[in-house]
């Protein structure tokens, strides 16, 4: 793996209070999750690809813009990475009051280990509902009430739960096939069982790169956060794949609807993204409007793991596939897609991904069903 070192000009200062060190300024830090993650010149999947990052690569984050992080990369400012492929490892917060207690644990009854004052900057490494976990000057962790710290991207740092169960409405959906449930938060942990794609799990704790979960069978263990999508809300009562079958059945009602540029009327005319947008809207799924912007909705799914209802994206603008997004359809299962074509078939139709045209034009896929 090539380690990409992100450069930025940092002005470093410190305030020492009861042995506690505070950076006056530092960029937000993160790591890449996933392989072959594109670094682009702008916040769009259609913008120029300027480099590739891999799992574990360290980055410094300058700002968040929608679903993208702006980073400083190899002395080039203004590069962008999709936030989906980034784990924030620390962010800076500013204290907004004087004589604020820094505590040994996330509790007002715990020992005070330091004091901070208005304007001091602390390095936040994790959070729960009421507390920020921060890093002390000696490398130890401590805790400050969220009421006294503000700053951009603090909401992006990982969650700690102190070993307590978090809200029951938090669940996770497995996004990778054959995911291993382990007895400890480590790749060295023993394998309890193997979880299936789209399996829904209760979330007990979220700690950086690992999520403590409970299966429907009652097995408790840890899974890599890279291969689950953690969600808050009503836990799905049925699998994403069964909902996908319903979406495909609904979409097939509109076979033959003519192609219409910018159209979203399933009966009178739709373009490719208008067709997908309107079908998914019927099931309460809100998507971006264009095919290129839809590619940032949901979570990435490998072509080998496609299921009914997944969105599939193509580069149809060039003689050769350059990875741009210009067309989108809905995966039906059995290697087929349903989509609105502006080609010779002209309208809502069904094609196979194994056809030479679609096979060579395929770019990526996203899962938006939850």
Number of strand elements = 30
| Structural class estimated from helices and strands | mainly beta
Q: State the CATH superfamily name of the largest domain.
A: SH3 Domains
Main CATH class of the largest domain: Mainly Beta
Helix tally equals: 4
List the helices and strands and how they pair.
Elements: E1 14-17, E2 20-23, E3 28-32, E4 37-40, E5 49-53, E6 58-65, E7 68-73, E8 76-82, E9 86-95, E10 100-103, E11 112-116, E12 121-127, E13 131-135, E14 141-145, E15 149-150, E16 170-174, E17 179-182, E18 191-195, E19 200-207, E20 210-214, E21 220-224, E22 228-232, H1 240-251, E23 264-265, E24 269-270, H2 272-281, H3 291-294, E25 299-300, E26 311-314, E27 327-333, E28 336-341, E29 347-352, H4 356-361, E30 362-367
Antiparallel strand pairs: 1-2, 3-6, 3-9, 4-5, 6-7, 7-8, 9-12, 9-15, 10-11, 12-13, 13-14, 16-19, 16-22, 17-18, 19-20, 20-21, 23-24, 25-30, 26-27, 26-30, 27-28, 28-29
